[in-house]
Every structure is written in C-alpha cells, then in structure tokens.
Here is the input.
Amino acid sequence: MHNHDCFARPNHEYLGFSAGLDFETRILVKEDAPDLLRGELADPAWKPQTIAMSGVTDAYQAVERRLGLTRRCLEVLRDFRNPVVIITKNDLVTRDVDVLGDMAGWDGSLVFVSVTTLDAALSRAMEPRAAAPERRIRAIEKLSAARVPVGVLAAPIVPGLTDHEIPAILERAAGAGARFAGYIPLRLPYGVADLFEHWLEVHVPEKKDKVMARVRAIRGGRPNDPRYRSRMRGTGPYAAQMMSLFELGCRRGKLSRDAPVLSVESFRRPEPLQKSLLF
Here is the structure.
C-alpha cells in the first residue's frame, strides 16, 4: 500500500484507473506543477495560506528521485515564503532538508513522518514501496537535526494488527527528535475494503476475522464511517482504547498533540516577478 492509500485508491478510480493493480503499478505525474504553483502564488488574488503536500498520496514517491518535482515546488514555496506542511512515509524527504530548514527559519515548514508499524516484515508486506520503519525513524532524526519541526503520524493504525504498537512508535519517534504526534485509525472506503480483506487473507489469514471485526467495531458496524469526527478517530470501546494508548504515548514521550502553527507573515512576491507584473 502507498501513503494514505485509503484516500488515494478511490481517487485513482475517479481518474479511470483501478484501485488495485493500476494503483500499485501506474502513477500520474504533473510535470509542470512547479510552474503552475509559481503562477498561482504570483497571482495577486492568491491569499497566503499553508499548503499541505501529501494530503492524498505521497509527494516523495520513488519517481521523485528522478523527477525532482516536489523539490522544485518547495523551492517555489521558499521563494514566496509560503508555508508548507508535508506528510510522508518516505525518507527521501531528507534530501530536501536544506530547503525545509530555510523555511523553518520563518515558521514556514513542518513535516509529519508517517509510521504504520515498527515491524520491518509487516511494513514490507503492507507498504512495499515505502521506506522501511528504521529509515523513517532516521528521517525524523535528520529533520530534527536540521531544525525542521517534525512530528510522527501513527497512521493508518490497523485495529487488531498494529494498534498495540502505538506506544512504541511514539517512543521511538520522540527519541529521534519528534516534537508532536497524531494518529488515524484505518478506514476502508469504497473498493478498498475488498482489497484489504484480500491482503489480510494473503498475509495474516489467522488475524483476518479479528481485524475486520474491530474495523467494523470502530466504524459503527461498517468498514467506513464518512462523518469527519468518526472518520478521523473512530467510535466505541476499541477506538477509545486506541486513543488512550496514544495519549499515554504522548505523555511519556513529551509529544504535543498539536502541531506548531505556521506563519504567513513572511509571504512576499519575489522582486523580478513584481517588476514583470508592473511593465
């Protein structure tokens, strides 16, 4: 599974691809993204606001090593001093610590590193194209050393499979320099439920019934509950248990449950652009 694929797989279907094999093997690239972003920020109608990168799928896919589109977008954001939040489960983000460090100087950047499990074998099975758990922990260390505000996102938490790891994930992340934390229980919208059930059958058949029962237990008896509060936290005793594990881990690791608020105060349109707009 890719980063946040409970969001991205249905999006792939919307674009005319399958949520299964196509999602695993085909990627869509917007090669002019940095130029489009520069044009948007240069427009006088743009109101400076924090931009989130990776809300649907990961901005640090493997192809980014070659294309460098994410890095060029970050350079545009740095030029305009427009703040950015990054959510990723790939350590490629550390390539860009120079840009992110510059932006942190004016409260313009923060990174959530997403950690699903500390079990390397389970991580390989669940997220074969994402960085191994130890590399994600090292990414937190490198970002922290570069003074980039960094937190850990324990997500997606799979009830009955990875929920017991919440305290350990938070402890390792805090030890690596994470300052804040969040978590999101697994949700299974649209066709993702069938894909996930098949994945359980292949990789952990002995836990399939328990996991699916608990997923339904936190989602009001269904694989997914679209209401926002329920979607982000779940409901019922298992969801409450996850929340208490998370709160305990935050207390132990001295992790804030609120990420720092970024600033738009430094936003500016670079000088050459201002001149070209005038003449």
